[in-house]
Amino acid sequence: MKVRDPRRRPAASGLAVLGAILLLALAALLAEHAAAERGWIDADSWLREALAALDDRQPSVWVLAGGIAAAVLGLWFLIGACLPARRSHLPADGDGDLWVSPRAVEAIASDAAERAPGVLHAASELRRRRLKVKALLAPGHEAAIADILESVGDRLAGIAELEVAVQAKEGGR
């Protein structure tokens, strides 16, 4: 049986909250309009005044801008609803259903780089499928980059298929 891979929230979830807020604002506007039309409040309806302001034979700049904004917002909602949620963890090799978080991969890579000869400090950053390792080298260890690549590659073998890049800088004397 195939288990679903771990995913983040879908892109549409944020848009759904925005849509709910817009619908809530529309409901408040319609409630105010109904209360004004029934005579429950002593004010004119905002909706009636807004529609009266729009009753012009020539389209105004505000109507055009509102139409463009509504079209862009609708297109943004449509694209967000169709995008799948991104994977939150990386699959590990093996028979079981094992997933590794990106932070764990960064920590493993940083630890492996720090254990390479000549490395004083290392930090890693994972973006999609590219792992960037920044290392601070002890003076006189310029050839440590190959050791870092080998150490990180050995430690991450079987965990995730990643493109590893090393950026090394020699520490001051």
Short description:
With 173 residues, this protein is an alpha+beta fold.
What does this structure look like?
The protein is α+β, with helices and mostly antiparallel strands and about 170 residues long. The protein has 2 domains: about 10-80, no CATH class; about 90-170, 2-Layer Sandwich (Alpha-Beta Plaits), CATH 3.30.70.1350. It is about 50% helix and about 15% strand. A 3-stranded mixed β-sheet has the order 3-4-5. Strands 1-2 form a two-stranded antiparallel sheet. α5 (about 145-155) links the parallel β4 and β5. The N and C termini lie far apart (about 60 Å).
- Percent range for β-strand residues: 15-25%
Q: Judging from the principal axes of the Cα atoms, what is the shape?
A: elongated
Task: Look at the structure and give the mean pLDDT.
Answer: 83
Class inferred from helices and paired strands: alpha+beta
Q: What's the CATH first level of the largest domain?
A: Alpha Beta
| Count of helical stretches | 5
Keywords: Membrane, Transmembrane, Transmembrane helix
Protein name: DUF6286 domain-containing protein
Transmembrane segments: 60-79
Domain DUF6286: 72-159
